[in-house]
């Protein structure tokens, strides 16, 4: 099997539930699109338009240049992604992701760590922090980027490639509440039957 480059979305989904990106790469199906996914896409577009008119006060920054929808790629990591916003200040580069949620999950933090790694590669700099902008609350939450997070991202990439290459179904998330709205739920017979 010829494995394609992975995406930052794969990293986020693998941390959320390792089966989601596994199914995406191994099932010969169009990815089901849920109403929640459509709503999230619309919210992202709306937030980008509003952000371009706001100051950087929500991030505690006085001056900086914003770029939206920034494509990032690392040949070394074989990883790509499109970041919602990057803030360039005189001293640092800060990745920002918009989320239509009221809290920051572990999967969001590792998504930002993956974006930080791509931004470091693309712009030849070190990223020490990032933000999740919670759109329902109109509030930015700072997420520090650490060496341990970078290593976890590398481990996620290795685990995902190994699972897809060996066509070995990963264990599902232990958080069963996440399965309710999952677009791949019907493929997890062991979870639905109460196993795994």
TrEMBL record:
Q: Does the keyword Hydrolase apply?
A: yes
EC number from the UniProt entry: 3.1.12.1
* Function recorded in the entry: CRISPR (clustered regularly interspaced short palindromic repeat) is an adaptive immune system that provides protection against mobile genetic elements (viruses, transposable elements and conjugative plasmids). CRISPR clusters contain sequences complementary to antecedent mobile elements and target invading nucleic acids. CRISPR clusters are transcribed and processed into CRISPR RNA (crRNA).
Annotated keywords: Antiviral defense, Exonuclease, Hydrolase, Iron, Iron-sulfur, Manganese, Metal-binding, Nuclease
Q: Which InterPro entries match?
A: Cas4_exonuclease (IPR051827), CRISPR-assoc_prot_Cas4 (IPR013343), Dna2/Cas4_DUF83 (IPR022765), PDDEXK-like_dom_sf (IPR011604)
- Which organism is this protein's natural source? Rubrobacter xylanophilus
The cofactor remark states: Mg(2+) or Mn(2+) required for ssDNA cleavage activity.
Q: Where is the DUF83 domain?
A: 7-188
Which EC class is the enzyme in?
hydrolase
Q: Which GO terms describe its molecular function?
A: exonuclease activity; iron-sulfur cluster binding; metal ion binding
Concerning its family, UniProt says: Belongs to the CRISPR-associated exonuclease Cas4 family.
GO terms under biological process: defense response to virus
> Is NADP one of the keywords UniProt gives this record?
no
Q: Which cofactor does it need?
A: [4Fe-4S] cluster; iron-sulfur cluster; Mg(2+); Mn(2+)
Q: What is this protein called?
A: CRISPR-associated exonuclease Cas4
Pfam families with a match to the protein in the record: Cas_Cas4 (PF01930)
């Amino acid at each position: 099997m010829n494995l394609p480059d992975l995406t930052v979305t794969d990293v986020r989904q693998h941390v959320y539930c390792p089966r989601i990106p596994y199914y995406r790469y191994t099932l010969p199906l169009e990815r089901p699109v849920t109403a929640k996914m459509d709503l999230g896409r619309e919210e992202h577009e709306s937030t980008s338009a509003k952000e371009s008119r706001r100051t950087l006060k929500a991030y505690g920054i006085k001056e900086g240049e914003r770029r939206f929808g920034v494509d990032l790629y690392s040949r070394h990591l074989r990883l790509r992604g499109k970041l919602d916003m990057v803030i360039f200040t005189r001293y640092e580069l800060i990745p920002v992701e918009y989320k239509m949620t009221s809290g920051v999950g572990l999967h969001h933090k590792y998504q930002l760590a993956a974006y930080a790694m791509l931004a470091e590669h693309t712009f030849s700099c070190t990223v020490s922090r990032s933000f999740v902008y919670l759109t329902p609350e109109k509030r930015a939450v700072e997420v520090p980027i650490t060496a341990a997070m970078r290593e976890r991202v590398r481990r996620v990439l290795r685990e995902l490639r190994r699972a897809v290459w060996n066509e070995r179904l990963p264990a599902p998330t232990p958080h069963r509440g996440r399965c309710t709205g999952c677009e791949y739920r019907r493929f997890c017979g062991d979870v639905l039957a109460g196993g795994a």
